[in-house]
Amino acid sequence: MLFGIDLGGTKTEITVLSDNNYAVLFKKRVPTVKNNYAATLTTISALVDEAQKALNVSVDSIGVAIPGTVSAITHTIKNANSYWLNGQDLLHDLEKTTGKKVFLENDANCFALSEAVDGAGKDYKVVWGLILGTGSGTGIIIDRKTIEGRNGLGGEWGHNPLPWMNEYEQEIAKIEQCYCGKHGCIETFVSGTGFEAEYERQSGQRLSGVHIAKLLNSGNKDAAKTFNLYVDRLARSIACFANFIDPDVIVLGGGMSNLDVLYQELPHKVKEYIFGKEFVTPIVKAVHGDSSGGRGAAFLCRA
Ligand SMILES: [Zn+2]
């Protein structure tokens, strides 16, 4: 059996998959205790114990999807927006608490791995998975293996500058700073949060992405303008990196991936920006939705 834990900012979820057909055998979600590292360790340990008891097994290893990554220099967590993890030796501490071999992997990489193994990317060699949610992260999978990178930066797309910024976007970038400290990051424009921020600039109202999507469907002008700007920015950001890695499939996840109209508009928009103006890569919706973190983490335990 494969044990995977998705350590999110608001919830911690364990998923247990069968070895042969990856069927879900056990699943449980509990709230993440924020700002408490000791509680993070005990929560994960308790979930593992509970799953083992329920399934009457004892496993040797667990995979954990984490926000951020493990520093190649200090071997502690860095770049996590669950900031209480940063600077902690999570791998060592979890191995001590659970008594298991632990595999840690960035949550966007776990999402991409899950989709590459048995999701929307299962028939492709090079899978680029993009999460467009509260934040925006991506993972690159080749032959069902994650490109982690020497510095743990494989697939870190969101903290590059938005390509080919116009004057309006340059003004936004000047005023608004990304949590990473830089200005004009892709994430600040193409995440769900970025979508909501643009709607606020257009209409003066802060609404949820789901609410704005409803307005878009009902023909609201501000929502339509926001969507057009969003698609154009996402297309530029995809084109720039497709020029570089040219994946076989692009899989979208996170809240924004539920906008069906995105799949009609994006391909021809990407074509406008990509080198040579030809783009035949399928852009598809994730199959496993928000289960991907735990599934991808479980796949880390595959022999
Ligand atoms: Zn940034």
Proportion in β-strands: 15-25%
Rounded to the nearest angstrom, the radius of gyration is 19 Å
Q: Can you write the helix and strand succession as a string?
A: EEEHEEEHEHEEEHHHHHEHEH
Total helical segments? 10
Low-confidence region ranges: none
GO molecular function: hexokinase activity
Pfam family, one: ROK
Protein name: ROK family protein
Q: What are the SSEs and their pairings?
A:
Blueprint: E1 2-7, E2 11-17, E3 24-31, H1 37-55, E4 61-66, E5 69-70, E6 77-78, H2 90-98, E7 101-106, H3 107-118, E8 126-132, E9 136-142, E10 145-146, H4 167-175, H5 186-190, H6 192-203, H7 209-217, H8 221-245, E11 249-253, H9 261-273, E12 283-285, H10 292-299
Parallel strand pairs: 1-4, 4-7, 8-11, 11-12
Antiparallel strand pairs: 1-2, 2-3, 5-6, 8-9, 9-10
Helix pairs in contact: 1-2, 3-10, 6-8, 7-8, 8-9
Residues 159, 178, 180, 182, 185, 187 line the site of zinc ion (ZN).
